[in-house]
Amino acid sequence: MHTVKHAAAALAIVLAVGANAQTQTLTFDGFLSGRSVSAEKEYPSWLERGEGRFDARGNQTFALAQLGADWAPNEHFDMHVSGLARHEPSSFGGRRAGLTEAYFDVAGGGFQLRAGQFFLPTSRENKGPLWTSPYTLTWSALNTWIGEEVRPVGADLQWKSEFYWTIGATAFRGNDTSGTLLAWRGWAMTNRLTVYNEPLPLPPLPDFRGFQKDVTHPFTHDLDHRTGFAERVRYTLPERANVQLTHFDNRGDELLHDGFPGEYAWRTRYSQISGEIGTTSPTTAAAEWMWGNTRMGLPQFAHVNTDFQAWYALVTHKFGRNRVTARIEQYSVTDKAHAAVEVYDDEGRAWTAAWLYDFTKTLRGGLEFVQLTGTREEKYDARKVSVELRYALR
Predict the structure, then answer these.
(1) Is the pTM here over 0.90, yes or no?
(2) 93-121: pLDDT as tens digits
(3) In a domain? residue 283
(4) Which of 113, 151, 217, 327 is the most exposed, having the fewest neighbouring CB atoms within 10 Å of its CB?
(5) CA neighbor of 80 nearest in space, from 23, 21, 18
């Protein structure tokens, strides 16, 4: 309830300021979507504290409303706020509504300063408004995790040359528990964004019972009062291709906070290289590769120290009202400590085929098939078929 109030208050501020400005541009982006999903019943979703990597099991329906507002009184300043509300099975943990982003930009002379909560501009997949994908209904495992646990609260300074180079650096807090889901659950494949202060369910944790809460809050108040940093550099051939290298380190102190049970400030670091070819052409190829480490706890007690990596490659083609996309990917989590009963190793691969059709400029249909296989304690093999109808609020 508090999260919904915060989102409403932020949107009201944008609207009120915009209404009083004499020269202004106030724009809205939004989507209303309904989705029917068929997946294996034997794999309960991780949102139900199960072993499933999807956000569904059996035959289930979902609904989602996303809304974003941007106010730009002049070419040097703008404000953005966005949030969502969703309908999910009552057995799912998490929140049904909340704030996803809220920030302002100040720009001039090739520089841009952004402050608030925002996505780092790394994804070559989630390029649409409100961090949506124009290619598939289900995101890659890599970007699923970004949407779940990586969204800094801080300030980002970016410099862009006239044509080719972009350099950026971010200082942030409030992303202390990033890495929790990768270790406790492994990788997942959904299109679900975590909202601010949302408690996400964790699987049973025998070695940490009484210490670790049974939920994690990816975006909430800062736990260890340490500042994290991210840096990136991008080279762009305008309208043709780009490649970007990013490094992220939340500098978590690895200790337990907020009493017993509490939450750990995980030390999560990763590097990521991403690129695409055919940026504005009917056929586009894109890929990302991420590798890093996440850890927490004291070495003399049960603790976690895991390496992780994930990559995907996709090809998409737009013709007429149709867009077809094929994606392959692979991911892993490797336990380096072996200091607890829980098994953290996770290894898998997946492929996705999607067809999107524009009935009108605002109404889009979608059909998608996803298959993933892998091993975490035991082998798993899961498939999902999704049908979606989405209306764009423009």
Answers:
(1) yes
(2) 999 999 999 999 999 999 999 999 999 99
(3) yes
(4) 113
(5) 18
